[in-house]
Design a protein that fits this description.
alpha+beta; 7 helices; 166 residues
Length: 166
Amino acid sequence: MIDGQSALKLIADSLERWPTFDAAGCADDFRALIRQIGFSACACGAWAGVGRARRHRFFFVDWPQPWLELYEREGFFHHDMLAIESRRRISACWLSDTVAHLRLTAKQKELVQAFEAYGWKDVFGVPIHGPGNLQGLVTMVTREKIILGATERAMLEAAARTVWER
C-alpha cells in the first residue's frame, strides 16, 4: 500500500492520461492504478430495469474466477449489499460501513461469510446513476485494510466514474 500523497499523484496522472485512451486501455490502466493503491481486484458494470426485469452486465471484471462462479451460483447479485445500496445512494462507500448499518437477510449473511472465507477484507464501491433508470457500480476489493482520507476517496471516486463513463 502507498501513502496518501503518492496515491493522489497516481490518480491525478491517470485522470490526465485517460482522455487519450480507448475504453479497454482506460480499464487496463484503472486496474493497474487500483493495484498500486492496494486493492486486489475490481469490477465495473451497469444495470437497467426494476425487479425481475432488471438486466445487468459487466463492462469489465477481474475478480478471481472461483469467486465469480460462487457469486453467480449462489445468486448473490440479487442480495449484494453494495449493489442494493448503490441504487439508493450517490456517494462512494466501504462495504464494512454499509453492513454495519443494515439488518442483513439470511442470504446476505451467507454472502458476508463467503466473502470473509475467501479472504476479502473490504470493498470500496462507487455508485453510478445515469439517464433514465440506468445505474451502475464500480467496486474495488481488498485483502488488506486500506485507509483512504477524504481527498483520496474523492479522487478515487472520480477515477471510478471516469472509467465507468469510458
